[in-house]
Amino acid sequence: MATPVEGKVAKILDEQTLILNVGSAQGVTQGMVFCVFAPVEEVKDPDTGQPLGAWEAVKGHVQAAHPQERLTVCRAYNPAQNRPVSAEERSAQVLSAEMVEVSKLRGGLQPKSKLNVDRTQLSGMPEIGPIQVGDRARSVEEADVKT
Question: What predicted TM-score, i.e. pTM, was given to this entire model?
Fold first, then answer.
């Protein structure tokens, strides 16, 4: 991908639609995906003490629906909804609540993997809050967006 396009949330229209302050004049094209994020805190190199940069907490992803010259109307983006659906998925049946519970009891749901870390060094995840006007946004490759 070429240089990412960076902008900010200029207006929130509803829970699925927002406007970014960048448009076709800045290289935005229809279908382009943006990551809306908040810089959290500066991280320093443990060896040199030099700043590495601020890590970013992702608040959500949006897709350009209607780029105009200096602004873009974007819609909520869910990569799972934008991928091809297999024949197997189309024929899948809906499970009842009872079937889901039985599946859980038989180990159907796997816990998230955990790292073996020094628990005394945990800093905790920050509370980043919802998307707000002024939040930063950067274009990303669709393949880089995780479901």
Answer: 0.71
Cβ within 8 Å of residue 53, ≥6 positions away: 42, 43
**What digits encode the pLDDT tens for the residues 113-142?**
888 888 888 888 788 889 999 999 999 987
Burial pattern 100-131, b for ≥16 Cβ within 10 A else e, equals eeeeeeeeeeeeeeeeeeeeeeeeeeeeeeeb
Q: Write down the pLDDT at residue 87.
A: 46
- Quote the pLDDT of residue 111: 62
- Residue 16 CA to residue 128 CA, distance in Å, equals 19
User: What is the per-residue pLDDT across 20-31, written as a single tens digit (0 to 9) for each?
Assistant: 999 999 999 999
| Tokens 């870390």 belong to residue | 117
Pairing verdict, β 6-12 and 136-140: antiparallel
The pLDDT tens digits for 61-113 are: 999 999 999 999 999 998 776 544 444 444 444 444 444 444 444 455 556 78
